[in-house]
């Protein structure tokens, strides 16, 4: 069962969401209106009650039909919720979610109460760049010579093509290392080459996806 609630019942308001039957397979679904970069969530129990969720799953979808479970890198995917109706439990997502729809699925709740919660999601409007290329073109990503990227920097892309071969992306590092993403006869290949003091580029490994 899904429900849409008035903004007056968000985490800062009175009341909250509580389904008629406190059983498994209930969920609270949020339509963000457009594709959004979600960076965190916060929950409370239902205001002035004994109703709160102690464990839950977080799901996301671009269409509202096909859903994926969000998993933190160091957990099984289960989020620990509240122990009372008033305290706030917040999570900053280790990797942001790019989605239009969010679902919170309660797993366990206060045994002396019912399923109940107030929910906030944090983030910003998602913007992406779209480019078209012929078979002789490619994307070049060159790192800043002054600053180094964080180990957690993430570069994502989706692509559609009518050709089964071509270079999709080529990245060059500060010290001569480079990384290429190539489509060859319908298979994706990652080419990584490491710079050498003697020979400019040494192939290190090639992986097919």
TrEMBL record:
The protein's matches in InterPro entries, at most eight in alphabetical order, are given as: ConA-like_dom_sf, FA58C, Galactose-bd-like_sf
Q: Which PROSITE patterns match?
A: FA58C_1, FA58C_3
**Highest taxon of source:** Eukaryota
Domain named F5/8 type C: which ranges?
1-124
- What SMART domains is this protein classified in? FA58C
Annotated signal sequence is none
The entry's family comment says: Belongs to the neurexin family.
Under what name is this protein listed?
F5/8 type C domain-containing protein
């Amino acid at each position: 069962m899904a429900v849409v609630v008035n903004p007056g019942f968000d985490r800062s308001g009175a009341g909250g969401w509580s389904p008629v039957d406190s059983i498994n397979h209930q969920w609270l679904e949020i339509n963000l209106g457009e594709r959004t970069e979600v960076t965190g969530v916060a929950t409370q129990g239902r205001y002035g009650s004994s109703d709160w969720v102690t464990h839950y799953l977080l799901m996301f979808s671009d269409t509202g039909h096909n859903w994926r479970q969000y998993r933190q890198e160091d957990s099984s995917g289960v989020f620990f919720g509240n122990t009372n109706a008033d305290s706030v439990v917040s999570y900053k997502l280790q990797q942001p979610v790019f989605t239009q729809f969010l679902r919170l699925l309660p797993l366990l709740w206060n045994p002396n109460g019912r399923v109940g919660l107030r929910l906030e999601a944090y983030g910003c409007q998602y913007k992406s760049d779209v480019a078209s290329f012929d078979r002789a073109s490619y994307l070049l990503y060159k790192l800043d010579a002054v600053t180094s990227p964080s180990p957690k920097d993430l570069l994502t892309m989706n692509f559609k093509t009518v050709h089964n071969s071509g270079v999709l992306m080529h990245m060059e590092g500060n010290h001569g290392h480079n990384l290429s993403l190539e489509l060859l006869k319908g298979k994706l290949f990652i080419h990584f080459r490491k710079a050498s003091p003697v020979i400019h580029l040494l192939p290190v490994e090639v992986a097919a996806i």
